[in-house]
Fold:
Amino acid sequence: MTGSAERRLDDSQLVRTALRIDDPGSVAGYTRDRSDPTQAPQIVAEYDLTPPGGRRSSPEGPWFWCSHCQKENHWRGLLVGGAEGRRHSIGHECAAAHYGFSYASAAKAFADELKRKGALARLGRIIASAPSIETGIASILKSEGLKALDLKRQEIQQASPPMAALLSAAALSDAALVEDVTVPDPEAEAKFTRREGSRPERPFTKVERRSLGRLQGAWLLRTQDDCRDRLLMLRRAMTAAVELDLLDTNSASTSRIVAVVRGVEQAHVSAREALRGARSVAEFFHHENVVRMSRWSESKPWAIRRTQGGLAIGDRDGRASLVAALIPIEVSELPPIAE
Structure:
């Protein structure tokens, strides 16, 4: 669906037209006459008049008129255009039986209209929200909170680049840190005893990898797909939506509109997630997390330990860099997409 010539309504008409109605009998041109089953139908609206509780609470109706059955027989149905502007109500299932093969294409065309109308409504809400969201993005990118986060990340990277790189990878993948633990290996020891006929001089051991849990405040060390990256991604998605609106949506396929709208919505959710992560970066210096990193570092060429004001990152020769704890940072919330 790419041009208005292929559609019953252009986009401006589609936005204004109700495709789901509550009172089909009040529509101009409505008639109880039987519609012509040989005429290809054009579905103009659908309705659902099912009362609360459905058949359980209203087993005897009342129902709504069906052009095919020629009696009040359904709650859910379609309003179909006929000759000379007539409008006929017909049950969903009856419509397929009444119009035969021509019904499938009519049903698809109407489903496409519903999908496009929904996408246009979502695009309209995005366009209405664009100025406030752009203002929010610009403000957050310049905020003191993000500056403090960037500076603390650089400080940790400078203290130990290889350690920071490994922690950054764990932060990006949301993987748990692990420690290597030496434990007894009774199975290997038993095999040795059976083979040699005597117990080994020293107990057999093996190394197990045990999870220490995920990093807290992990957004502090994300060097890719971080808060700034996601805000800029949202800005690009918003720009694509604004450009689509300016170029006239009638020339765009429904799939294109849906893709642009979904791109904005997903980027907005993703950016808000990143902002929540940014607000939690002070948890990186919490006692539990420093203990976790300290145990993780025991098998590495460096060591991490807690200090009174933060943590120390050192090598095995005793040289250490002190990193002061980061106080909770303030980052504004993004404005929502209009409802």
Remarks:
- The two ends are 27 Å apart (CA to CA).
- Residues 178-213 form one domain.
- Residues 1-5 have pLDDT under 50 and may be disordered.
- The longest strand covers residues 205-213.
